[in-house]
Amino acid sequence: GYQKVMEENRKLYNQVMDLKGNIRVYCRVRPFFPGQSRELSTIGLIEEGKITIVTSKNGKEGFKTFNFNKVFSPSATQQEVFSDMRPLIRSVLDGYNICIFAYGQTGSGKTHTMSGPKEITETSMGVNYRALNDLFYIVENRRENFSYEISVQMIEIYNEQVRDLLSKSALNQRLEIRSNPQNGLAVPDANVITVQSTSDVIELMKLGQTNRAVGATAMNDRSSRSHSCLTIHVKGRELASGTILHGCMHLIDLAGSERVEKSEARGDRLKEAQHINKSLSALGDVISSLAQRNSHVPYRNSKLTQLLQGSLGGQAKTLMFVHVSPEVDALGETLSTLNFAERVSSVELGAARANKESTEVKGLKEEVVHLKEELAGKN
Ligand code: ADP
Ligand code: MG
């Protein structure tokens, strides 16, 4: 009985996912900081899958609306954000590959979404912890029918170089990416650590964050200039059949997407900016060519896309989580972030929009029928 229910759940779930498309885009707006004036906000109306930005300038009124699969307002809690991603995250236990990206300018809330604030609590913890909590919980629930092994890797990509964040000794080593990994490990030389509980993971992430900070002493604010990637490997065995499933989930806190003023950037800063630019646009190119089902997908253009080659496209599920700041000062970056996000999702969302229109048209047609009936009744 249980097996059958599981099977049907999985089928239903896959149908829903296929229906929705494999690439989804969510948007989250950061709240103002305490004491900031809300009058200087660029955020207009937020609806289920729509956000309108106020682009007014010099007394000239302007608005621009963007469509996504979901938009979270500044008041959305960590819990609410996570509960929407839950089915996606759970599918790693059924052997799917998943990529979740946090994209946006520095200070827009990427790390808040993925990890949470510096001192995490039950309510403030981010997607990384919640995802692992959830996985451990389900693993426990399924233990009569499945046995699972969960392990993690944590790496950083800085200036197109890959570093292991879970190993102090290998911190200065540059790691290679394998484009055709035999064992499912795209970075085989980075530590792979088996974890049994959320507290194991919290310890590891602390280590990762400490290691990350080591690099930061030389360059200021390195964390916003590098991509950090937590990879969760899942190996499952269905006890009755002996079937083995491999799933893999990448949780990626991307480098800040802000453009550096040309006049401002020199030396290291210019180099960083060029690397970030290159890798974010390579990521955008890969995702949009997947969304358009192009036959050629340009994975080779950055370390980030090489790393994810086996986990983007095909049966893999991708969630691009774009973050925007509400301040007027950020308007330019907000618009370019939302344009990027629309570009990566255009095809899928085009279909979603068409669906919506047809239900709207259907509703209107029904209304016309009702009105005609009413009129007929009056005559
Ligand atoms: P990023 O990683 O994009 O540079 P952070 O996640 O560090 O941005 O967020 C910048 C600041 O805003 C941090 O102090 C963070 O705690 C706060 N912040 C971001 N998003 C939220 C949110 N949704 N609710 C409350 N505080 C937030
Ligand atoms: Mg950050």
From TrEMBL:
Coiled coil: 354-379
Domain Kinesin motor: start-end pairs: 22-347
Binding site for ATP: 104-111
Recorded family membership: Belongs to the TRAFAC class myosin-kinesin ATPase superfamily. Kinesin family. KIN-14 subfamily.
Protein name (record): Kinesin-like protein
Residues of the full protein shown: 267 to 645 of 823
